[in-house]
């Protein structure tokens, strides 16, 4: 079909509008098209106007442009559906999709992508199956969308087989890279490496995806190895490559010195290649130095960055929080606000989480106000952090209010609320919330069951605790770990079921741990069988050498039995090992400062001034008493 000169002219004008991103120019051209009745009669030009409005125009203009197209084709419907998806109106987009007189692969890709981006992965998968039932062959883009959100490696393998069965052209690098990314995300690294080896053509994204997969899965040696192999090929590492390697540093505390040395070499290489201005790499460097316990280097990198963005600020704030420099993190946050850097969900979640313990409570309230002001109160991550903050501050009613107001509650939200009730002593509320979760929430995981077992432990609910414990594997598909076993053993010991507890301990690979030993000594330490108590105390001394409990319990046990020589021996050993009673403390936040007050402390923060003021007040009182006696 040959376009008339007039259509070509207006198409060229619209191209100029696109390059200028000028909404005003688009409206001028569109008005002229309406005047000449070209929008109504020429579908191509109508679609062009609709497309431009969808990219940088108003939604009202886009809707009007769609209605003005008299003879709509599949492109018109696809663009209009894209507008609805961009507005998060997935229901309207689906209704439009069902009403379309004809659909092509782009139509299917758009609605599948829309469901995926909205979190409705099951609906997206059903549409993927349905499009093949209708005889529409998935494109490379279709498969890349589906591979990005599948929930298990097994399902990914099914999609991979589907691709082979449909005769997908595997010469496309995009398909191969999507497969590598999918297998890496699900930890099936041997399959990811197999895909990589079978690629006819490898690009920088292929290398980056494989290296990042090794790094995220904890195989940092393989990540280093393939990074070095990559440098021997024609592909030079980019900022993403080096940042992926950096994230693998400091993954283990046992190799922190070696990781720091590797991280410094990578950082030097990034400077040599001119990547320091890249905020993703700078963020990775800040995070790497922080995890290697070298926060000063993190601060130096941050100070060298001229252009801040949310990524860099988030890395610096989280690094300061991890190193217990919460006040400094608040300062960086305030500076970022002054630079008009909008905080993200991660920023607020990080600050809210730390404010509950290490900063004055008023800051947590101020952050909550900022969350509401910025419109993040419906974000599940931020809301869960607020629930955690109020729970740890003891404001459990405020935490429950926020939880109830959450539109979408994920499992993290449920777990946070259950643990909040538990730690605030509301064990029955924890059990009621657990029942609600079973009825209307997601499937409980090991953290959920840990929280509910802990509630039973705190409330001495032995029957409920045992019922949940023995049904963990069959009912919820969770294999009990040492943390669950420790809680149930502690509960049994508290409730006088020592023999049953010992039977469970024999099934544990690690045997008695510190918590179990302390529980046994607390309950049976003084009047229990002496030989057994001595063995438990010795185990606890080996597990926690500076713990004072076994020495105190043994002294009391020997005193009750009149074994004074043994008492003297234990006290001497306690003195030789410099074992001292743990001093309790409390703290109070005043403005930006946090003050701690230790047990039996005579002079504390500002104590000299307080006692001086107290003496002055006492002198004034003495003078008043003398005046009264004289009168």
UniProtKB/TrEMBL annotation:
The domain of life for this entry's organism is Eukaryota
Give residue ranges of the PPR repeats.
104-138, 172-202, 203-237, 410-444
GO molecular function, a single term: RNA binding
Listed InterPro entries: E_motif, PPR_At4g14850-like_plant, PPR_rpt, TPR-like_helical_dom_sf
Keywords of this entry: Repeat
Q: Which GO terms describe its biological process?
A: RNA modification
- According to UniProt, the name of this protein is Pentatricopeptide repeat-containing protein
Q: Which organism is it from?
A: Lactuca virosa
